[in-house]
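Posting for a labmate who doesn't have an account.
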Amino acid sequence: MKLEKKSIYILITYLIVYLLPSFLNSSFKLTHAVIFNVQIIDYLVGAIILSFLAFHDMPKNYPEKKSSHAWQIVLWGILGFIIVIILQTIILRLTIQAGENAASQNTNNLLAIVKHYPLYALILIVGAPIMEEIVFRKVLFGNLATLFGFLGPNIAQLLTSLLASTLFAFAHADGHLVLYGAIGLWFCWLYHHTGKIQTSMIAHILMNSLVVLPLLTL
């Protein structure tokens, strides 16, 4: 029951964090500078709160029944990052060959903000990756699979990995559902393989950093 309750608390907190900037902006008509600062604080505080809920007195779920050393977590986090970049490259090339647009308008918009407000990068390389891994991998994949354990561990984890990855793809809302779905499944595997959500967090943070950090050096 504690696993279910804490999972619900995490989802509610994430929803509040996600919607709060839009609510404040619509209520008080904030300037761009103010709303961006609000988002930065909102996401960083949200990441801290979700991390506390996820790691403090949280019962172990199916993936976390495995044990890994710190060096394995870091190693698989880095390998996971390398593989996800290869995966992205392959899928985007196939997208282009299919005659579709490989560009992500959502990503382009976020990077444009970073160019004018460098601190906004904290959202993309710290706040968002940490929260998304806790919500989509730890809760919607790992915890939900445990709650549906009556189906059997393997079937439950297969179904929840597909659900979590589909929701992860739709959450990015830029039309590249196959790409983000594949990334979501790969991050689920990293979490499942090591039993530590920090593994997929490392891969996710490195993936976003590869895109964002070069803009800060221009």
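Reply:
Got it, the structure tokens are right above this. The two ends are 50 Å apart (CA to CA).
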